[in-house]
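Researcher: Let's run the pair from yesterday's discussion. Sequence first, then tokens, for each.
Model: Starting with the first of the pair.
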Amino acid sequence: MVAFSHLAVAASAIATVFAAPTANADPDPPDFELGPHNLARRQDYNQNYKTSGNVNFSPANNGYSVTFSGAGDFVVGKGWKTGTTRNITFDGSTTQTAGTVLVSVYGWTTNPLVEYYVQEYTSNGAGSAQGQKLGTVTCDGSVYDIWKHQQVNQPSIQGTSTFWQYISNRQTKRPGSGTVTTSCHFDAWKAAGLNLGSHNYQTLSTEGWGNAGGNSKYTITGA
């Protein structure tokens, strides 16, 4: 099974990565930095990481923009240091010219340790979806496929651990604007036996790998 989407903790930065969907992929984790931007909206995390290629990330006080070319692996975004069942509204666009690109709501919980994704756009149709498909849920005008996948002895926000990934992959892709009702996914996951714990951070992020090229620009709001 392809293993990707690792996350590690450094002394002053939280780290995370979605790795390329290739066999035995094991890239270095990215830096996920606490920043001063948009504290009034509680969007106080800037995610900024790349392994190779050209990635020009510009965080703003209500979102972010990024242009990229020849990117081996990167993930950038904007979010909150503490996740919750907020409705996250994004307005903007993503264009993919090469490689694999996705846009998702992303986060972690502890007790249990879970890494989760609500994938709004995936240029290859799957993004991080892998493992076992458990069913579907309809949220925000589209059917999402629900997946779970176990990571064994992989980096996490609690060090090297074994943990589950929960993934909702939107069938009607939207690289532009919309709202993610996170409670819709969290409730569907719970009904499927996928329980979340205490929330850590939560972001809207753009990710790319495989010599990815393109651009993203979003404004983000959420209670």
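Model: Moving on to the second of the pair.
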Amino acid sequence: MIDSEAIRTAFAALADQAPPPDRIRAALAARVRQHHRRRLVLRLAGAGVVAASTGVATAGVWRATRPSGPGFPVLDGGPGGGWLDVPLQYRPAWLPQRYGESARTVVVDGERAPVISRDWQPGPAEQPISLLVGWHPSLDADRPGGTPENVEVNGAPGELVQVDADRFATYVTWRAPGQPQLMVSVLTDDGADAQRDLAMRVARSVRPDPGRIGVGPRFGWRPADMATTPWRLRHGFQDTDWVQDVVVNGTGGRQLLISIGAGAATKFENTTVATEPIRIREWKGWRIPEMNQLFLTLPAGVEVFAQLDSGPAGEQTMSALTRVVEEFDFGPWPDMSWVGNR
């Protein structure tokens, strides 16, 4: 027979042993950051999805005006351009029906951009097909594992790898003489054989693309351990708003994230930890010292969310993050007219 009083005593003991609520919130926030970091890495490697929409709406010329197709908003964005002009180089000439472009990511190393990744999907968070152009040592840890199969793509030797991890994925990598490495990745709900056929068909359709993308944001200062580290710029959308993420991965897994867009900061408003008002240049916002996070509202309703993981002993991380944003050049807002196009 179960003693109800004993049950109540046991639950009371568990409650007494539970960690403080602040620690739980911090742990959950850290888990969210880790998950967000993994999504950014996987997007660039051609194995991720566009982040789920948050339902946040803001006003201004950057908002969507009409749908361009199933799941894709039309984004006014900005004029595009910036201090670095990057050629797109290649694109698939064939994609399944309803697929449109959903994200573009660039690796920036000094004054050059050695890698660009592009994602196509039938809608947000759905079965992406990606094309990665070029390679950089900073991506070595993201290289897909698995047993490679020798394939041929338009006369060039290549490899096909299928990985059954969190989600089944197929990768086709090849390189024609004198050309950059190309990698097509497919994460659909198809079986292994159908996914393999789809990946090969997309890969064999890849053709030159004369288009270009501009890198507008630029750092004026970064912490010493991140000062020369290659960084990543991602253009995409959340719900009906454009967003661009700037990500720097330092030593020991340390990360600096600056998210910019019409709804970049609003989706983080539900924090329950202490905040402080802050003013950087002519912009007002608030910060969370406990989480090393900072929020700003720029003109025309553009928002900024910035976060820096704790660094070396003795570093004042919140002060370092504030200086990063103070000296950050946001550049022109990105051209987003390509969203939803094939």
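Researcher: Give me one sentence on the second I can quote.
Model: The two ends are 66 Å apart (CA to CA).
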